[in-house]
Design a protein that fits this description.
Elements (H helix, E strand, L loop, with lengths): L8 E7 L3 H9 L1 H4 L6 E2 L9 E5 L4 E11 L3 E6 L4 E10 L3 E9 L5 H28 L5 H5 L8
Antiparallel strand pairs: 1-7, 2-3, 3-4, 4-5, 5-6, 6-7
Length: 155
């Protein structure tokens, strides 16, 4: 396969909570662990590396934020090899937030890049759905842990 443009993972979700609360849910691991990773070495801050863990999978990744615009945008690099993730927070009417995620910079062959982009789109869609459930309803859905349960082979 030949790519004309590098693949980009993109997803978005309306979350019916104020933008400051949605932004804080992404930067503060006390909140983020309710719907995404299980442990973090710290809060997201510009230039300060942190490590996120998904202990149910025995997986971790280093995360480094290159830019934070409070309540508007977070730009970070993560994974190995590193990719870039851009979170965009748009204030909406009625104390709601439109949260968009873009992940790009995948490595490998064209097929490998496309596979990574598809998997990333699915993963970030689950993260946003989990964030919505937690922030709007106080529900912990366990979406990330249930995506690849023990006993089911990953495809």
């Amino acid at each position: 396969m030949e790519l004309r443009e590098p693949p980009i993972a993109e997803t978005a979700m309306l979350i019916r909570r104020p933008v400051a609360e949605v932004f804080e849910a992404i930067v503060d691991p006390v909140v983020t662990t309710k719907f995404w990773f299980t442990h973090s070495s710290g809060r997201l801050d510009e230039g300060k590396p942190v490590e996120w863990e998904w202990r149910m999978y025995s997986v971790s990744t280093k995360v480094e934020v290159s830019e934070i615009v409070p309540n508007e945008k977070i730009v970070m690099q993560w994974s190995n090899p590193p990719t870039t993730v851009v979170w965009t927070f748009t204030k909406m009417p009625d104390e709601a937030t439109f949260l968009e995620v873009r992940n790009f910079g995948f490595a490998g062959s064209a097929d490998e890049q496309v596979k990574q982009a598809v998997e990333s789109t699915g993963g970030f869609s689950l993260v946003l759905a989990g964030a919505k459930a937690w922030l709007e309803q106080g529900l912990t859905l366990g979406l990330i842990g249930d995506r690849n349960p023990k006993g089911v082979s990953a495809k």
